[in-house]
Amino acid sequence: MSIKKVLFYLSNVMLLLIISSCGAGGPAKELIASCEKLNENILSMTQEPVLYKVSDTSETMRFSTDDGYFVTNIGVETRARNKQVIKQSYPYVSSFLDNALNYSGTLDNQIILAVLKEAIKGTGFELELTEAQQNSIKGDYEDPSYKLLKNEVNRIIGDDYVDDDFEGPNGCIDVSDYKYANEDSDNSYDYEKDDTSYLWDVLIGTLSNGYEIVVVTNVCEKTGKYFGQTCAKKDFIYKPDFSNSTANSIKVNPWSRTWSSSSTERLAKTVWCIENGYRDYSTATDDCVD
Predict the structure, then answer these.
(1) What are 118-176's pLDDT values in tens digits?
(2) What's the first-to-final CA gap in the chain, in angstroms?
(3) Bridge partners (DSSP) listed for residue 230
(4) Who's near 214: CB < 8 A, 6+ residues apart?
(5) Residue 236 contacts residue 79 (beta carbons within 8 Å)
(6) What is the largest CA-CA distance in the chain?
(7) CA distances (Å), 58 to each of 50, 74, 78, 123, in order?
(8) Which pLDDT band holds residue 183 (cuts at 50, 70, 90)?
């Protein structure tokens, strides 16, 4: 019997075991234990790094989603400092971050594979992708090898990652659904700890934010510009703008004046929001966001 047929046979056996266990009083205890450990791992991997602000090197901030702030407000040294913080926060993809240049900010296949490998450590889950298949996965998320990875993520995580022609167990989402359906019996279900698909989405989203900041840093280091904007060499420190002689101690609110360009206005409002304790500025709402 060929290796391919053996793997196909084993995968079908596993599928039958999981389906039968779910139909007879819920998922098997082993599967539940594996998924609970997986959830713990993912939760520990979703801690958002705290970055340095430009106004005071002793101050920190949460992620900002405004690329412009990291291009024109943060200088070379602070960008490099924040890049190291992000790399240390995600050591399992640190080597990928060294030269990350995907302008879209989308995590490529190789990074997601590295994240999945880290997440399943000690859970009992093993990758079913052969070494050759893993080596075939390209960085470009539009590469056909994405289908291999997507099905592997679905097999373990479940839910939204199912492919149209994927046939197999729906990962830990089966355990999450079972726990949710039976929460009244033991009140043990916690969405932010027991929903594997949700936890995975949070992890990928948080890592994507850090990845995008690193891309800005790498592009600035390489070209000195990011989408036409010149990358700052030094940190930009916001200086008070006094509206009149009788209000010398009041910093002008950027919403109270007229701006010569939308990019300058967005930059000023982003700086104001971050320096006043908010996470970012939203152009959609024209307001600061927590």
Answers:
(1) 999 999 999 999 999 988 887 776 777 888 888 889 889 875 544 455 455 567 887 77
(2) 59
(3) 225
(4) 83, 86, 87, 97, 100
(5) no
(6) 89
(7) 12, 14, 12, 39
(8) low
Rg (CA), the chain: 24
Q: Check residues 185 and 21 and name the one with the higher pLDDT.
A: 185
Model-wide pTM > 0.85: no
What is the signed CA dihedral for 71, 91, 144, 155, rounded to 10 degrees?
A: -130
pLDDT tens-place string over residues 26-46 = 567 888 889 889 999 999 998
Per-residue pLDDT tens digits for 233-269? 888 765 555 444 333 333 567 887 777 777 778 888 8
Extract the tokens encoding 110: 């190789």
Write b or e for each residue in 147-175: b if 16 or more Cβ atoms lie within 10 A of its Cβ, otherwise e.
Answer: ebbbbbbbbbbbbebbeeeeebbbbbbbb
CB atoms within 10 A of CB 290: 8
Q: Write out the two tokens for 75.
A: 């200088």
Minimal CA–CA distance to 150: which of 195, 194, 200? 200
Give the whole-angstrom CA distance, residue 68 versus residue 277: 18
Amino acid at 7: L
- 109 closest CA partner among 137, 69, 67, 75: 137
Could you tell me which of 118, 119, 106 has the C-alpha nearest to residue 146?
Answer: 106
